[in-house]
Amino acid sequence: MLDKADFDKGGNSSTGYQERPVEKQNLSDFGLNKKQSSEFQKINWFQEKYPKEFEQTILKEKELTTAKMLVVAKDYEKIEKSF
Q1: Residue 71 within a domain
Q2: Scanning 24, 45, 55, 80, which has the fewest C-beta atoms within 10 Å of its C-beta?
Q3: How far is the C-alpha of 65 from the C-alpha of 69, rounded, in Å?
Q4: Dihedral sign of CA atoms 39, 44, 50, 54 in order
């Protein structure tokens, strides 16, 4: 059977797991700039908050673009702020 000492080889001694250093990632690592990140976050907000409407928007659009999705997301954001 393994002894507790076998696990305590660095890292967090309370769990016995060794922690790995976390590498910081930048938007550029994903090929994005701040504006694109903001836009995608707005679209993601719309998708999470209004999943049925999001899917309906996708189905009714002949050509789906980021710009069109942002317009719809902003419309729903305005509706939500009006309450």
Answers
A1: yes
A2: 24
A3: 6
A4: positive
3-state secondary structure of 7: coil
Instruction: Read off the pLDDT of residues 4-37 as tens digits, 9 standing for 90 and up.
Output: 555 545 555 566 667 777 788 999 999 999 999 9
Mean pLDDT of 43-63: 94
In a domain, 47, yes or no: yes
Q: What is the DSSP string of 38-58?
A: HHHHHHHHHHHH-HHHHHHHH
- 12 in a structural domain: no
How many Å apart are CA 64 and CA 57, to the nearest integer?
A: 9
- In Å, the largest CA–CA distance within the chain is 64
Query: Domain limits at 53?
Result: 33-83
What is the total count of domains within the chain? Answer: 1
